[in-house]
Amino acid sequence: MARKLIIDGKEVEAEDNLTLLQACEQAGAEVPRFCYHERLSVAGNCRMCLVEWVGAPKPQASCSLQVKDIFPNKDGTPAKINTNSPYVKKARQGVMELLLINHPLDCPICDQGGECDLQDQAMAYGRAAFHRFAENKRGVEDKYMGPLVKTAMTRCIHCTRCIRFATEVAGVPDLGATGRGEDMEVTTYLEKAFASELSGNVVDLCPVGALTSKPYAFNARPWELRKTESIDVMDAQGCNIRVDARGREVLRVLPRLNEEVNEEWISDKARHACDGLSRQRLDRPYIRRNGKLAPASWAEAFAAVAARVAQTSAERMAAIVGDLAAAEEIKALKDLMTALGVVNLDCRQDGAKLGGPRPTYLFNTTIAGVEAADALLLIGTNPRWEAPVLNARIRKAWLHGHLKIANAGAPVDLTYPVQQLGADATLLEALADGSHAFATVLMSARRPMLILGVGAVSRPDGAAVLKLAAKIAADTGMIGPAGSPSEGGWNGFNVLHTAASRVAALDLGFLPGKAKGQTGRDVAGIVDGAQKGEIDFIYSLGADEFAADKLGRAFVVYQGSHGDVGAHNADVILPGAAYTEKDGLYVNFEGRVQEAERATFPPGEAKEDWAILRALSDVLGKRLPYDNREALCAAVVAQAPHFTVRDKAPVHGGADPAVWNAVGSKGPLDATLPLASAITDYYLTNPIARASRTMAECSRAFGHGASAMAAE
Amino acid sequence: MSLRRLHHQQPASFAFSAANKARVEKEIAKYPAGRQASAVIAALWIGQEQEGWVTKPMIEAVAKMLAMPFIRVLEVATFYTMFNLEPVGKHLVQVCTTTPCWLRGSDEVVKACKKHIHEKPHTVSMDGKFTWMEVECLGACVNAPMILIDSDTYEDLDGPATEKILQSLRDGKTPKPGPQTGRRSSEPEDGPTTLKEKV
Asked: SS3 of A376, please?
């Protein structure tokens, strides 16, 4: 129901389920606030959002006053609300004065300076004319909250946003407020680190400088930074980010708002792996001479590659796409290899048995669609590590709905209650034939979904797991009517990729091909072939997550940005650009095509990756038919037309039994091999993260490496 | 009120006695299923009755029992000043110094505590028998000034009366709770002014 209000002299209709603050904002009024946040519960403790309800004896905290509680005047006229009267200004000035009693005047040395809510609002509501408190300000001990969050607790104004975020969104209730009144302190339990993969978001939420970013401490002021809109590649979710750079260096990464992908959160890896962008960089070409990598010029490096290609036949050559590549270079590499007649192509470093029609390897429900689900089966995945922001979305669905969740895989704490079904792969058979208890839950659910982890399909019996997952999806009504979840459509079959490049590479068909009676090898086949001497030449486009150190005597060209395992075992290194240093198209696990802009230039002699391949193709005599990125993007679109649709997840096109029956292949399941996530250390999953000191420290602090080793 | 932190020396473990465990379970049963966290204050209070003060292992044991994060129980324990976060003597002496008691001479009572127990509040006396502290109104203003020792109130005090009570407790005796001046309860000091005769 809606009721009429007069806000600042303007008559408006406001829905009953709104708060007065939301109604004021809809009416175009600006209401200052500290504790109120759209995505958190209402606390109502900062009192900055005071407004005047004409006739009420006191100013009203608009964030916690609901529209349905506002009654009309006695004469029946709508209630009058003022948000900018002298009365309101005076009330807010009073609140600001109280907030500032104990707030230190250390803005010059505070990292929040320039982007501080308190600073900004003090400009509007501060009493600069006089200050009536001569007493000493409160002293508060700083707290330890882990390697990412720096604290200066004298600045805390007790808004409790961080506590509410930890409890509600992150689902890791590590933060709390001890004591009361003046002695209230926001802290973790006895100096414990805040053990969430989303912990960096409390820095964004903090309206003052109490919680700031530890790795970014004293680095820069916001007005010195060049802001570029980009896409995160640390996981396959494609979180929207803003890259803040000064000069050539990326200093920090912040989230951008995108309701359909990441709301306004990003994971700690997305936020804090950016120091890895300036470490371990490949900034010039190298050639292995006498067993040692020696610096070389581009011409020498290309000549070395060309010489080797000239003496190798196509069936003894192979190419692998790494996890961070953009669509452009995948397309360029694919075209170059096709021109050379190479069919040993693969993008699935982990050996996932995926491919085929697009819906069979996408997260079809879409991230926002998860909120509509009422039953969820996780198979061999740990979304908390594989896509922390998606995990927050699942938690949100559980918190606000009746989502029943079961996990077929190693038991892990996912921040919401999960029915642990065990890690034995054979239970999928019971789920598929309907004899398992949870199959009944899925069957009776209106919108059931499953999330198939890459860990489950990269096992030796991955194709059989995929087949069973597709059968479960088809038999329990997960493949529903066409359309997006908001329009009543439903497709509950989801693959959760961990590599940012994977969906683009699958879209562009970077998979083992066929030619002249020869079937292309996958990554395992390439490694095996290299060890047996059947593969002599491997082109690695930033591939570091496979057995790159076990390639026998094969000649390896590594094109990438970081000196990781792939580069250490290469014969020629072609320095490429990291994700912040090139314009690039990335496709997230939903199949959403998003464009990242270049924030900085690649270091030294490094070049944009597609340009390297284009230049190399010239040297190899197979000149690629595009001279600029526009032409290349046109070629991408020509092969995969869905690349024209940007920033939208593909809409489910309806159940096609032929597609779902053909997924995977029948085969025996390995009962001795437990279903588990593909990730053993969340903080160190790619070359950039492994080059980052911050991520290394997190891995140490949160013991990820240790638990992974203990499990092995 | 001052900063409330856990004591620097903590016992190694905590467990409710069988009787107290049953009491906590009875408290939990008062609330609907899944709302067991509502019993946190009662659980900590029973724990404090058992140990005399709230210890870190107790906070963790209560948190586990009620399926709460440790920090949530710590919040409660630090919020309420009636939870003692440091060890106390055998008898806990709480002296009311709020206005009515103060007007009626609670300063003398405090002085007696300082003399008999320790110069500083919140400190265990040398013999381990007492800890005293100032508290806000305990609701016996009609018999001001008063003190609360463990769970008994001693009322209508002055310096010597307080010393006498403390001394007899120290000697292992149990002084009679209530008014110490011969008043039966809270009737006027110089005898009743109304209802003097039985009708």
From this structure: strand
Give, as one character, the DSSP assignment of residue A410: S
Domain count, chain B: 2
Beta strands A537-541 and A555-560: pairing type? parallel
Of A176, A179, A183, the CB nearest to B71: A176
In-domain check, residue B168:
yes
CB contact B67 to A (< 8 Å): no
Whole-angstrom distance, CA of residue A336 vs CA of residue A198: 40
Residue A709: per-residue pLDDT: 43
Cβ-based interface (< 8 Å): residues of A facing B: 173-181, 183, 185, 187-190
The reply to whether B99 and B141 lie within a common domain is yes
Question: In chain A, which residue's Cα lies nearest the Cα of B68?
Answer: A173
Query: In the prediction, which pLDDT does A711 show?
Result: 40
Taking contacts as CB-CB distances below 8 angstroms, the residues of chain A near B72 are 173, 176
The CATH code of the domain that includes B150 is 3.40.30.10
- The parent domain of residue B35 ranges over 18-79
Look at the alpha carbons of A281, A284, A288, A290 in this order and tell me if their dihedral is positive or negative: negative
Q: Would the CB atoms of A178 and B78 count as touching at under 8 Å?
A: yes
Cα A538 to Cα A528, A542, B94: the distances in Å are 12, 12, 81
Q: Do B4 and A179 touch (CB under 8 A)?
A: yes
Within an 8 Å CB–CB cutoff, is residue B136 touching chain A? no
The pLDDT mean for chain A works out to 93
Q: Let me know whether B100 and B172 are in one domain.
A: yes
Q: CB under 8 Å to A518, separation ≥6 — which residues? A: A315, A343
Cβ pair A490, A652 in contact under 8 A: yes
- By Cβ distance, the residue of B1, B4, B71 closest to A189 is B71
Determine the average pLDDT of the residues in A319-330. 96
What are the structure tokens assigned to A85, written together? 């009267």
Tell me how close the Cα of A451 comes to any Cα of chain B, in angstroms. Answer: 29
For chain A, say whether B78 makes contact (Cβ under 8 Å): yes
For residues B112 and B60, state if they share a domain: no
Give the pLDDT mean for B75-95.
95
**Are residues B46 and B99 part of one domain?**
no
Q: Residues B71, B110: one domain?
A: no
- Helix or strand (DSSP H, E) at B93: strand B91-96
A-B contacts (CB, under 8 Å) = 40
Of the candidates A173, A180, A188, the beta carbon closest to that of B72 is on A173
Find the DSSP H helices in chain B. 18-29, 40-51, 56-65, 70-79, 99-103, 106-116, 159-170
User: What is the per-residue pLDDT across A261-284, written as a single tens digit (0 to 9) for each?
Assistant: 999 999 999 999 999 999 999 999
Based on the fold, state whether residues B168 and B122 are members of the same structural domain. yes
In a domain, B191, yes or no: no
Nearest chain B residue to A173 by CA distance is B69
Pairwise CB contact (< 8 Å): B74 & A175: no
Q: pLDDT at position A705, please?
A: 53
Helices A629-639 and A609-619 meet at what angle, rounded to 10? 90
pLDDT band at B1 (very low <50, low <70, confident <90, very high): low
Q: pLDDT per residue over A98-138, tens digit each?
A: 999 999 989 999 999 999 999 999 999 998 777 788 889 99
Give the gap in angstroms from C-alpha B28 to the nearest C-alpha of chain A. Answer: 22
Cross-strand partners of A584: A596
Span A619-634, mean pLDDT? 95
Q: Kindly list the residues from chain B whose CB atom is less than 8 angstroms away from the CB atom of residue A158.
A: none
Any domain includes B158: yes
The CATH number of the domain holding residue B25 is 1.10.10
Shared domain check, B69 and B46: yes
Q: Is residue B11 one of the residues assigned to a domain? A: no
Within this chain, do residues B75 and B99 fall inside the same structural domain, yes or no? Answer: no
Instruction: Give the list of residues 6+ apart from residue A641 with CB closer than 8 angstroms, or none.
Output: none
Domain edge (last residue) among B35, B58, B79: B79
Give this prediction's pTM: 0.94
